[in-house]
Structure formats: structure tokens, C-alpha cells
Amino acid sequence: MKKIILSLFFIGAMMFVSNAQVIYSENFDALTAGANQYAALQLGGSWTTWNGKPGTDEDGIVSSAQSFSPSNSVYISNASQDLIYNFNDLTTGRYKIGFKIFVESGRLGYFNLLLDHAGNDSKWATQSFMKDGKFTTDAGGIDIPEKTYNVAAWNDIVYFIDLDDDFATLTLNGEEVVSWKFSGGSHGLENTKKLDAIDFFGWDDDGNGGAGFFIDDFFFESVTAPEAPTSLIATVLDEFNVKLDWTAPSLTPKNYLLSRNDVFLMLENSLVTTTDSSVYPDEYVYALRAYYDGAGYSLPATVNVNIPGGIERDFVLYEIATSTNCPICPSTAKGAKELRTNNKKATIVSYHNDLKGNEPYVNVASQERARTYLDLFGSEAGLPTTFMDGYYYIVGGSANQSLYPNYEHAYNKLIVRKAIHDIDLNVTKTGEDAYHVVATVKQTSRYYPSGLVFRLALTESNISFNWQGQTKLDWVCRDMYPNATGTFLNFGADSTQTMEFDFSTAGYVANNCELTAWVQYGDFFEVTQSTYIDLSTIIGIEESAINNISVYPNPANDVITIATNEKANYEIINVAGQVVKAGTIENNLENVNVSNLQNGSYFVRVIGKDVFVKQIVIN
Fold first, then answer.
1. Identical fold between 20-223 and 230-306
2. Per DSSP, what are the bridge partners of residue 571?
3. Cα–Cα distance for residue pair 215/84, rounded to 1 Å
């Protein structure tokens, strides 16, 4: 049984004495030690086990073999043991939680905090693993550097948790391990601002080791926040650099922690100014906290900053390296499908490749694109691997579960990130299977002065194919134009670039195809904008010419008029291919109220004797 939770890192400073109210403390010395002398059974109250069974194999054993304060501690020695102390759903306040831990030589230690203790539906706030002197922690989805602990000796663990500030810190032997947004949980995927329990579990590294650790001198206190810095001022020096000044607190902190949204930067305690360089165009909240030994971080001083040049991001791009021979790849297919089902503005391209053997849907472009990403991470990456806007990536999957929760988490972070390019695709059907596309890219910021690439991919969905318990394939990359390398952009003095491409859907079902375009920094870095066209909405020039149909005005505000010489039905379709409005044209003229539709591009499809499609813009 492995439990998952994340952690952040902290920073130390001069000793700060804060007001503390002891809510609970326990040194286990009044308990009876020995075989089958169960800790939770003797303690009662808030002590229990994972499944609420004190006095069973889940319970910790009271031991006199080791103790920090004479003469007892609690011993966890196998994966059946799972000792819980309940904080009972705290949602406000600031708390300090600590204990001593002794991990035997050659054995393992583990503990976590729970946002919600609910059996298999529990939500982790953070978790820490101790093995061979190495201390690793999960918290907030942050990449946390490995620490070291004292083997076969006592170590000091302290959490500072401020529920009002939604901020937490973990320290090991007085040194910060991590600081993070508490409600985000171990992997930053949660949104639960609650402190429910601490858990001491007999982690065995999935059978690759055995638990063996003692805990002693557990305490739980209500504390006040130490003094914070004040008067945080931000000045944008030029396009992308931000100067920050502040007034130091009266006591000298050990250090400062500066955050820009989700990015953390540790600063020396002597500073009262710093410059944040190369800041991407977007809106930010800077927060500055002061750290004191024994008291943790202060509340933040904050300031809002806007770096101009950013525009709304139209879509989040999901590039998926996959294979029909991969038993855990269905999780990506399910996750991608759910993105569209849940109306997420997602562009999706699946690169089938031969990493797992002969692949029927591999092609030169999909193979090259998949290898570009997989080679970047070397042995760390495998199939499936999903890359989201070139900003986040997920390695691995499941035969039965969907990756949608992970995809959604990344989506929520990325869709609000500003874009710095606008892409317009004008697609014309020039033959039975032939298409011509004019792509126009407008740049709104010169944050990336060079190295930008425009990529264009044709994907097909709803392909009948039996693979790994699935019967369909979606968003299969059929080709890229002009190739997987893409077209290098060079804006120079002009903020707009136009490119033209020809492509064919011969051998594919055109109505199941999408043309996806994006601008990316380099081969695999950040995607600065993406969009797509559903080819089922594209009609040939010769087809539309035979219809005596008009749609106006274009662009439109509140109402569009559809005029035709026959009774017909109409549909208004968004760029995700969803019908958002439909009706019947009774008397050759229909006024359609579109005031409730979001601004953007739409397709009007008129179905009579023939089918007519026209792209419109609603402002």
C-alpha cells in the first residue's frame, strides 16, 4: 500500500519566539510498552488507525527499545500498521505540528498529512519517505530536492500550516524541506483547504524494503504568524523585468521567500530589493514572506503586476506519444476524450510510434515528433507521455483509469496563462480530397525574439480499431506540414506572418479530421498559442457556389440573418465542433439571436437540398 502526498521547501532564520497554545502533546511514556501493547488503543481520543481499528494489526506498538524522552515511543514495523491522529477537519487557524522520528538502519520510514481522511477516497496534503539516509517529499506538485536524515538516530520533523493563508512548510532537523500551497495537496491536484489527519504508515516501498521506525514527542499547537515585511512595491523597468522593493520587519529573518504566482525564489535576509528578470507577459501576484527559525513563514506582503503583450489563450495543446501496443496508453485516450466531453478548450494530437513494436498508425511525422520529446527526457520517459503546451508533461498511464484528472489540473493552470500569438486558419476545399490553408500568425509580444516555430498537423478521429480493450482511435496524427520540424517564424519589424499549405485527406474520413496549428518556442518548449479547424465544417468553393444562400452581417454582434431560396435547417457550430444553436428557416429568411454566444469564430451550416457552410465572427 503506497500513499501519495506532496511537500514544499522552507527556509530558516534567527530564532523567533511566538505565542503558542498547546492543543495536544504526547511522549507515550505513561503507556504500557511491550508486544501487542497498542498505542491507539491505550491513547484513545484522536488516535486511531486507517480503518478505525485500534488494538488490531493496524495499530502502532508502544516500545521501550528507543525513545527520545525516556522511556517509550511508538514503533511501526510492517505494512499492516497505519496509525492516525485526527485533527478533525480544521479549516481555519495557524498550526505547528511536530514529532521525533528514528528510522532503523536498513529500514524505511514514512508519514503524511491528510487534507481529508476518508479511506480509499482520502486526499493527501503531503507525504515524506525515508530510505537509506535519503529524505524525499511530495507537496504541491513541486520538484523538491532530496534531503538527508540521520540514520539510526533521532530526527526532528516540524510542519507549519497556515490555513488562513493556505500556505504550509515542512522542516527536517530545523532546515526547510519545502513550502507550498496547502490546499493543492501532494501533487497540486487538489483544492481542499482542510487539515484532517497525520498518518504514520508502514511503507515497504512496494515490497522492496521493510518499515522500521519509532515516533516520539508528538505535539500539536495553535500559533501566531511572525512579523511580515511591508510596503512591497513593484516597478516594471522595461518590457520583461520587474524591480521589487520592500520594508524589512523589525526582527531580522533567516531569509525571505518570494513567489510569483506558482514560482518560488528564496532570497537572502539582508535584501530589501531584488529584480525578477525575463518575466513572461501576463498578470501576476507577487508575495513576499519572511522566515524565522521556530516560527516558520510570515503572512505575505503582496503586489499585483501586469506585463503587457499577452492575449487570451484560445486552447491548451495536448501532444501525446502513444502506441496501440502499449497496455497503459488507454488512459491517455480516455483523458483526451473527456477533455472534449467536458467542453475544455483543448487541441489534441496523438503521435503513434514504434517504441513498443510494430505500430499500424506510425508515420514519419508522428515518429519524429514523438522521438523529439521522448529523447529529451531519455530513460525517464516512456509510453505514454503527454506534453501540455510544452510546459508540463506526464509520464505513464493506466490500463483502466483515465488521465483526465491530471489533464484537467494542467488545463486549469495553462488556459489562464496568456498567449503572445494569434493564429487564424482559412481552409478551402479545392478538390475531392484536396485542401488549401492560409495560416496567419500575429505576434503581440517580442518575449521570444527568435526560435519560434509554426506547426500544422492533420489528425483523424473515430477510427475503428481494436487495441488494449478499446475499439476506437482519436486524434491520430496523419501528417504534418511541411513536416514535423515546422516552419520557422521571423517577424522582424512586421508583427504578422502568413503561410500557405496544401494537404490531402485521401485515405481518411475527412469529416472525422481536424487541422491543428500552434506556435512553439523551439522543438519542445512553450506553446504560445494553438487552434484547430474541424474539417467537417469546410465546404468546397464549387459546392457553396450552387447555393443561393447568404449569412450576414459578418462580423456580427447580437443577430445574424440567414437568407435562402428554400426551406432549410441551420446549425451554428463552435470551433470545438459542437452545435450551439439550431433551428429551421421557414420563409426564406431567419433572424437568429446570437447575443448569448461567447465572442469568437463560428460556422453556420445550412442544410437544404445541398449543404452550405460559412465561417463568421461574433464580437
1. no
2. 582, 605
3. 12
How would you classify residue 517: left for phi > 0, otherwise alpha for psi between -120 and 50, otherwise beta? beta
∠ CA(339), CA(343), CA(344), 5° rounding?
A: 55
Dump pLDDT digits (tens) for 522-569.
887 899 999 999 999 886 644 444 457 888 888 888 999 998 888 889
CB-based contacts of 486, cutoff 8 Å, min separation 6: 453, 454, 455, 456, 480, 520
Ordered alpha helix ranges (H), 202-243: none
Q: Which amino acid is at 173?
A: N
Strand 589-593 and strand 242-247: the pairing is unpaired
Distance between CA 71 and CA 205 in Å, rounded? 30
CATH of 20-223, one of 3.40.50.1820, 2.60.120.560, 3.30.565.10, 1.20.1560.10: 2.60.120.560
Q: What tens digit of pLDDT does each residue of 183-216 get?
A: 999 988 788 999 999 999 999 998 999 999 999 9
pTM surpassing 0.90? Answer: no
Q: Which helix (H) or strand (E) holds 331?
A: helix 330-341
As a whole number of angstroms, the distance between CA 458 and CA 369 comes to: 13
Task: List, for residues 340-369, the tens digit of each pLDDT value.
Answer: 999 999 999 999 999 899 999 999 999 999
Q: How far is CA 460 from the centre of its chain?
A: 27
Return the CATH number of 544-618, one of 3.30.70.120, 2.60.40.3080, 3.60.15.10, 2.40.160.20: 2.60.40.3080
SS3 (DSSP) at 311: strand
Residue that is written with C-alpha cell 482519436 in the block = 474
Residue type at position 315: F
Closest by CA to 297, choosing from 307, 306, 305, 287, is: 287
**Nearest Cα residue to 129 out of 215, 218, 3:** 3
Instruction: Spell 275-314 as b/e; 16+ CB within 10 A means b.
Output: ebeebbbbebebbbbbbbbbbbbbbbbebebebebbbebb
Coil, strand or helix at 123: strand
Of 481, 611, 438, 439, the C-alpha closest to 538 is 611
